[in-house]
Amino acid sequence: MAKLKDCFIIAPIGNKESENRKRSVSIYVLAVVLMVLLAGCDSIRAHRQIQQPLGSALTTGIGGTIFRLDKIGDLPNAFGGRDIWGGKVDKGFAEMKLAGIDGDILTLEVLDINRQSSETTMDRYKPFQKNAIANVDVQTSISIGLQNNSKPYEVEFDTKKQKDIIIAGIRVTFINIQPYSIEYSLEDIQAE
């Protein structure tokens, strides 16, 4: 009959290779945790997305949109930094439309809407609640320029006196004025 201790391989308790492997894994885990925490401390940035192409000749008619600029911000986390998953919140938009043409004078409708939201990652992802898919409690305030209603500003723009106008950081340069349409180009002068 074989002895019981001959059936097992007994490794020494203080094995240096095992201790080094544990230390390497611990350092790796600590580095990953620190990177995630530091990424969550990045400052919140504002983003701008224009719907029309920049730098090329565009045309529109009366009632058409000259440009629309969507304002987007990073979703804040619980510590005031930006969301490490890349979540975004709507910050409003700026829009310019062609309302009319009278010779060289253009009637432009300008609307600039700014939104403030109290939403954070804790509201959107609800990490401590189960089955809270549609249970978001967020406050949003909207300001439309200096007015309390959503009526756009109307601007009478004389293209003989000036060829371009800047609204919300977008330069609109008027190239050609026709009786019922215009040709223009766009430039973002506040590019990120």
Task: Give an overview in words.
- The strands form two sheets. Strands 1, 3, 4, 5, 6 and 7 form a six-stranded antiparallel beta sheet that branches.
- The protein has two domains: 15-42; 45-188, no CATH class.
- It is an alpha+beta fold and 192 residues long.
- The chain is built from two helices and ten strands, in the order H-E-E-E-E-E-H-E-E-E-E-E.
- It is elongated.
- It starts with 15 loop residues before the first helix and ends with a strand.
Give a topology summary:
Elements: H1 16-39, E1 46-50, E2 58-61, E3 65-74, E4 88-102, E5 105-117, H2 121-125, E6 140-144, E7 153-158, E8 164-167, E9 170-177, E10 181-188
Antiparallel strand pairs: 1-3, 2-10, 3-4, 4-5, 5-6, 5-7, 8-9, 9-10
Task: Supply the key terms.
2 helices; elongated; single chain; alpha+beta; 192 residues; 4-stranded antiparallel beta sheet; 2 domains; 15% helix; 6-stranded antiparallel beta sheet
Chain-averaged pLDDT:
79
Fraction in helix:
10-25%
Give the helix/strand class. Answer: alpha+beta
Compute the number of structural domains: 2
Report the biggest beta sheet as strand number plus sense, adding barrel if it closes: 6 strands, antiparallel
Number of helices, counting only DSSP H or I runs of 4 residues or more: 2
Number of strands: 10
Distance between the termini: 81 Å
The Cα radius of gyration reads 29 Å
- SSE order in H/E notation? HEEEEEHEEEEE
Spans with pLDDT under 50 lasting ≥5 residues? none
| Percent strand | 35-45%
Globally, the shape reads: elongated
